[in-house]
C-alpha cells in the first residue's frame, strides 16, 4: 500500500491559474548520482529541453538553475515525488540534499510517495541510513546537523530551547513553565530536530486557540500530525 510523507508548510495555499504551475510532480530518477540526474525529472515536467543539442550532443546538462527560476516565476508551492522507495541507501543523501536545496531556494513543500515513504524520509532525516560512499552531496555544499540530545545527563540545551518557546506563548491558560514539563514528550515526538519541534508547538498552539483550550497539553500535542517517528508510542496504537 502506498504511503505519503509530507514535509513543509502545513498552511500552504495552492492557487489555480493558467499562468501558474503551483504543483510539480516527478518520479524519482533511477540511480541518481548528482544534481544533474536529480534535475532532469523537474525539467521534463516543466517542458524544458535538458540536452544542449539533441542532434549532435544528446548528453543532458544540469538544469537546476533554470528549474529553480521557473518554479519561482510560476509560483510553484508543492512538489509531489513519486517512487521515493526506489532509492537505495547510497542514493538517499544525493536525493534529499537536492530536495532540501529546492525547498529552501524556492519556498516549496515536498510530499514523498511510495511504499514505506514515511520510514524512508524519517530514516534519512535522522541519519540512520548511510550516505553515498564518497561522502558527496551532488555538488551542493551541506552541513550535517545532529539532533539536540536529551537524556538525564544531557538535557540542558533542549530545556533552554523549550523554555524559549514557552516564554513566547500567548495563551490565556498557559502558565510559564508548562511547556518545559512536556520536554520529554516533545523530544520523543520530534527526535530533537528544530523544524518539527517548531511546527509541533505552533500547530498545537493554533489548535489551543481554535478550540478555546488556550493551553498546550500532551493530549493536544498527540493530535498534531507532525514530528512523528516510527518509535513514537502513538504509532504503536
TrEMBL record:
- Domain of life where this protein originates: Bacteria
Q: What is this protein called?
A: AAA family ATPase
Amino acid at each position: 500500500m502506498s504511503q505519503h510523507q509530507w514535509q513543509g508548510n502545513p498552511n500552504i495555499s495552492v492557487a489555480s491559474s493558467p499562468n501558474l504551475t503551483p504543483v510539480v510532480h516527478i518520479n524519482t530518477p533511477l540511480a541518481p548520482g548528482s544534481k544533474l540526474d536529480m534535475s532532469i525529472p523537474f525539467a521534463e515536467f516543466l517542458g524544458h529541453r535538458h540536452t544542449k543539442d539533441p542532434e549532435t550532443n544528446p548528453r543532458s546538462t544540469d538544469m537546476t538553475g533554470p528549474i529553480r527560476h521557473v518554479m519561482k516565476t510560476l509560483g510553484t508551492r508543492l512538489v509531489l515525488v513519486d517512487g521515493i522507495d526506489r532509492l537505495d541507501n547510497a542514493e538517499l543523501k544525493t536525493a534529499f540534499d537536492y530536495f532540501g536545496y529546492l525547498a529552501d531556494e524556492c519556498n516549496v513543500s515536498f510530499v514523498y510517495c511510495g511504499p514505506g515513504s514515511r520510514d524512508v524520509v524519517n530514516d534519512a532525516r535522522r541519519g540512520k541510513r548511510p550516505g553515498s560512499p564518497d561522502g558527496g552531496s551532488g555538488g551542493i555544499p551541506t552541513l550535517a546537523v545532529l539532533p539536540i540530545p536529551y537524556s538525564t545527563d544531557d538535557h540542558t540545551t533542549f530545556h533552554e530551547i523549550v523554555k524559549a518557546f514557552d516564554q513566547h506563548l500567548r495563551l490565556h491558560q498557559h502558565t510559564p513553565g508548562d511547556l518545559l514539563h512536556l520536554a520529554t514528550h516533545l523530544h520523543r515526538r520530534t527526535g530533537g530536530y528544530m523544524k518539527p519541534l517548531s511546527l509541533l508547538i505552533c500547530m498545537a498552539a493554533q489548535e489551543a486557540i481554535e478550540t478555546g483550550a488556550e493551553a498546550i497539553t500532551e493530549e493536544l500535542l498527540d493530535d498534531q500530525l507532525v514530528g512523528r517517528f516510527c518509535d513514537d508510542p502513538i504509532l504503536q496504537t
